[in-house]
Amino acid sequence: MEFSYDEGTSYQNAGSGTVSGLDAGDYYIRIKAAGANFASDPAIVTIQENIPVSTQKRDTPKAIFDARTMTLNNLPSEASYSINNGASWTDAGSSVEIRDIAAGSVIMIKALGDGSTTTDSDIQSISTSQMVSPSGIVPIPATSSTGLGGLNHVNNGMEYLPQNGSSWTSITGSTVTGLIPQTYEVRNIASGNKLASASVSITVPITAQKIKAPKPNGSFDAPSMYLNNVSVGMAYSFDGGHSFTTINDNHCTRVSLSNDNAASAIAHGGIQLKMLGDNVTTTDSDVQTVAINKANPPSNIDTKPTDHDGGAIKNVNSNMQYAKVNGNWVDINGDKVENLSRGDYYVRYRANGSTLASDSITVHIGKKRIPNSQLLLLILMP
């Protein structure tokens, strides 16, 4: 064969196989003359110019995973998803149920291109996690083996499953009632991208006889003004049990008393302390009366006068303290305090154990008197 680009004016040998590298346009193709045979009439073949078609990347999906229903929603048309980091992809409609996904997995979604005018979108990634397991749930005992109990300290974000049950029941409110005595699984329901939590097992028992909570062993330390050895769940009273204050702080180990608190407690025979029952298995404990007293003021204290700093307070002991007016209290060691200047001093018994410091008494160190014989001599001296 031979072909012509100039409408048959001149021909080129086509050879055999394929002729490449030709420009767009019309070509005459014929069988060459051979021997006694003339060349054939030409056939016209048109080579068209191949103009590339532009393609557009599809928009990134905005899918939503609902862990409550385990469905992937709001998918674009012609979409695929992967739950194994892109190792395999599954085509999906506008929504799809995904039951085999675990907490911590990543769902990858892409909109598929048609291979002609559109290409695949960028990948949207949705990370999943898990709700924290519930805590603090308290069973409500049933009155008997045929009676009904329940669950306390639950909330609207939880659901429960009876032992050997097949479906979860949503919880409304802070208490579930009407439950037979057996074990129940309780979990926090799924929310958003978070899967339901691992469940906790709570057994609804048959009611037991309530017992008293253990009696406290508190103590009062007068020097620091602290009621010690207390804990959350206890209650104390400074007015003889007419009113109690409950300790709600989990970290509380002591309660500070004001002077008024201490005075009231002394007037009512001590501090009242008890452990509160939970009204399920325990009742309030017996009341402990924590001793608190106040020492009596000192008596029979004497002083030694002085001219300068040689005065003294006598007839005291090591259980006492003294202070100069507007000064700090100083512990006394021994039966007297010496080398004191003239002026007024306070003396009291110091706080010790559960006994508060006594009220103070005031003593005065005056000026040392001059004997009459020395006074006469001073007068007669020139």
Protein architecture, described:
With 382 residues, the protein is mostly beta strands. It folds into five domains: 1-51, no CATH class; 56-130, Immunoglobulin-like (Sandwich), CATH 2.60.40; 138-203; 212-293, Immunoglobulins (Immunoglobulin-like); 302-365, no CATH class. The chain is built from two helices and 40 strands. It is elongated and about 170 Å long. It starts with a strand and ends with a helix. 18% of the residues are buried.
Secondary structure: elements and pairs:
Blueprint: E1 2-4, E2 12-13, E3 25-30, E4 43-47, E5 56-57, E6 64-66, E7 71-73, E8 79-82, E9 90-92, E10 96-97, E11 106-111, E12 118-119, E13 124-127, E14 129-130, E15 138-140, E16 149-152, E17 158-162, E18 169-170, E19 175-179, E20 183-188, E21 194-195, E22 200-203, E23 211-212, E24 219-221, E25 226-228, E26 234-237, E27 245-246, E28 254-256, H1 259-267, E29 271-275, E30 282-283, E31 288-290, E32 293-294, E33 302-304, E34 311-314, E35 320-324, E36 330-331, E37 336-340, E38 343-349, E39 355-356, E40 361-365, H2 372-380
Parallel strand pairs: 5-12, 14-21, 23-30, 32-39
Antiparallel strand pairs: 1-2, 1-3, 3-4, 6-7, 7-10, 8-9, 8-11, 11-13, 15-16, 16-19, 17-18, 17-20, 20-22, 24-25, 25-28, 26-27, 26-29, 29-31, 33-34, 34-37, 35-36, 35-38, 38-40
